[in-house]
Design brief:
With about 350 residues, this protein is an alpha/beta fold. It has helices at about 15-25, 50-60, 80-85, 120-130, 185-195, 210-220, 235-245, 260-265, 285-290, 310-325, and strands at about 1-10, 35, 40-45, 65-70, 100-105, 105-110, 135-140, 155-160, 165-170, 170-175, 200-205, 225-230, 250-255, 275, 300-305, 330-345, 345-355. Helices cover about 25% and strands about 30% of the residues. The strands form 4 sheets. The chain has a 7-stranded mixed beta sheet, with helices on both faces. The protein has a 4-stranded antiparallel beta sheet with strand order 2-3-1-4, with helices on one face. Helix 5 (about 185-195) packs across helix 6 and helix 8 (about 260-265) packs parallel to helix 9. It is globular and about 60 Å long.
Length: about 350
């Protein structure tokens, strides 16, 4: 059946970027098929865009039009994991079955509730059956912890491995999820920050991991210098490999070491922009970001956790106070939002601020 709907029309080269933004804003009409012709992609909208959403599209995309188009209705979706498990586990446990799956390359990562532990291999095999591109299914076996932000995993189906190649916005990342922190849920943030960078900037990525921020920035800009710092030796090994693989050797400079010491020894006063993706303890490094910033100031992308007791607004005030204690000043809060839910009533958030 054909249905006319309001849509976003963009050039094909902007398709992936547009879809990620539209899905993060929850504005895609998933009951209609996305349409493509020779030059353009048409993304059906579930509702009219707000003024703020239009502004975000304008900031992220070099070209887009809101118009109307005729779309085909989607065919019936493939069965979900819950549907596939219906006759395999007791009905009273179906509600506990994992709904969220993280895909890193050809690895699927799930959280198995304790009441379903004896069914975890069955759940793993079901996920393999439902996703032809998945080769390994891992179950989370602990929380993210330690200086290197790692967690333990149990292999519950498929090939016995934790290393893969993850593709994102035209970049490819070699990563071992058990040895270096990586989250596919931050793909929108990697792209958003990259789009905000201007040519000839110097960027300091204080907690770079395997390089998703640093490498995407370098891939999408001709003249930038990105200093990518991490304390985890294995993360730096993968970062160096990814730099070579994505051919950004002259723009990304990997540095192994504690961010505080590295800035003190090598990166004091160099940055136009500082990325602080260490939500657990980023507040402890605000003074380091300020020290890395050029004397005239610049922009900080600050990631933290917010919850009911410590709201996003409260985190913002704490950030401003920490900046003031470093004899700097937040001139303007440029942007803030919840990035992803990390637990019931807890979110990872981002705050972009201009500092002088």
């Amino acid at each position: 059946m054909q249905v006319e709907s309001e849509c976003i029309k963009i050039p094909k080269k902007l398709g992936e970027k547009t879809l990620v933004l539209a899905r993060n804003l929850n504005v895609v009409n998933n009951e209609l098929e996305i349409h493509r012709d020779r030059d353009s992609i048409y993304v059906p909208l579930a509702r009219p865009l707000s003024a703020e959403e239009l502004k975000m599209f304008g900031q992220q995309l070099t070209s887009f039009i809101v118009s109307r188009h005729v779309f085909s209705e989607r065919k019936k979706k493939e069965a979900s994991i819950i549907e596939l498990l219906k006759n395999k586990i007791p009905k009273n446990l179906l509600a506990s079955a994992p709904h969220a799956i993280d895909f890193v390359g050809d690895i699927a990562i799930v959280e198995i509730p304790s009441e379903l532990c004896k069914y975890q291999n069955l759940i793993g095999k079901t996920i393999l059956e439902a996703n032809s591109n998945v080769r390994t299914v891992l179950a989370k076996a602990g929380i993210v912890s330690g200086t290197y932000r790692l967690r333990e995993f149990a292999i519950i189906a498929g090939e016995p491995k934790t290393e893969t190649i993850h593709k994102e916005y035209g970049c490819q990342y070699h990563v071992d999820v058990a040895k270096a922190y990586f989250s596919p849920r931050l793909s929108f943030e990697h792209n958003r920050v990259s789009n905000l960078v201007k040519e000839n900037e110097v960027i300091v990525d204080l907690f770079a991991g395997v390089g998703p921020f640093a490498i995407q920035i370098a891939k999408t800009h001709k003249n930038v210098d990105v200093y990518a710092v991490d304390v985890n030796p294995r993360a730096i090994e993968f970062l160096k490999k990814n730099i070579r693989y994505n051919r950004v050797d002259e723009k990304v400079h990997p540095i192994l070491g504690d961010a505080r010491q590295v800035v003190k020894d090598r990166l004091s006063g160099v940055a136009d922009r500082v990325i602080m993706n260490l939500p657990e303890t980023a507040a402890e490094f605000v003074d380091v970001a300020c020290a890395a910033m050029q004397k005239k100031g610049g922009i900080v992308h600050f990631y933290a956790f917010a919850n009911v007791q410590n709201s996003m607004e409260a985190v913002g005030l704490q950030f401003k106070e920490a900046v003031a204690n470093s004899e700097r000043k937040v001139v303007k809060t440029l942007f803030s939002r919840h990035v992803r839910e990390t637990a019931p009533y807890e979110w990872q958030m981002v705050l972009d601020a201009r500092i002088r």
